[in-house]
Sequence to fold (348 residues):
Amino acid sequence: MAKYKVSVIVPTYNSGLFLNAFFDSIMYQSIGFENIEVIFVDDCSDDEYTLYLLHLFNDGFSNVKSIFLDENDGFPGKGRNFGLNLADSDYVIFSDHDDTYVPQAFEVLYNAAIENDADMVITNYYKVFPEEKVKVETVFRGENIVINDIAEDTRLFTIDPAIWCKLFKKDFLIENDIRFLESMLAEDFYFFIVSLFKSSCTVYLDDFYSYNYFIRNVEGDKSTIHIRNKKYLGKMVEGYYKIEEFLIDSNLCRYYTDIFNMHFVYWITSLIMSDIPDSEKLELVSSANELLKKDVKVLPGFNERIYNNLTKPILEDDYEGIVKNINNIKRYRGILKYLSGNLLKTRR
Fold:
């Protein structure tokens, strides 16, 4: 019999002060801290304060484990897999180290799981900027659903794969050998997609916001949403290929565009917004083009008017043409931003 109701698994790396706020949000959960197991898996932090806190939590609470990996991996998948193997609970959730949960998060998630005997329960979340806190909007517009097969509601492919607002039955993950990709990105995307297809009961609570996702964009403290270097974008492509491999092996390619289109738009937008040199952009588009091509054959321009000029070079494997058009889009967006800024000034 499991010792706890929920295990929260948290990869850490030089987390510093963020860990205090995160841990406080776990301690004061309405489900009761005694019903929660916290497993920190540290990726070789070299920050003394982070290590101090991890040892402090581990030594001060019987329901907290701090595990220290021998080598730095640089990605969260390994730590999450390690934590899953150690979890002593009925349900598990995977969090980031620099965000927080609302006080009722685990109670709502757990009760929904028990009530429906669900393999997975998903909630909505807040984006927290320095100046405001906003609710994420989805195509569900506040509608809650319970499904037994993803074919019943493929709108779930359009919600954010962010793993921290999703509760999983531990036995479901173990029995289906569902694990995070390691040493690459899109690891949460992969985990979410595989779980959606394997789940015999998925609950989605669009009207409940369980998590505060803090968006930071200052030098030395950037949320992953603002990281746009070659390594980051390349590691996302590696993860995309693993998802494609799963779809092929599982005879699920009919869902390819439903699953990928939104993510390809995000990836291309990130590439456009990046400041990396054209030589690196060329490497990235050449590595991703086989994936992009399959999508634009179904949705030219990824169903985004501003990206229509990318369709022809993608289909023709014209990598230099893709980079050229990407740079043109960036310039066009810059002009629009400049003009809208001047218009705002004149109205004032």
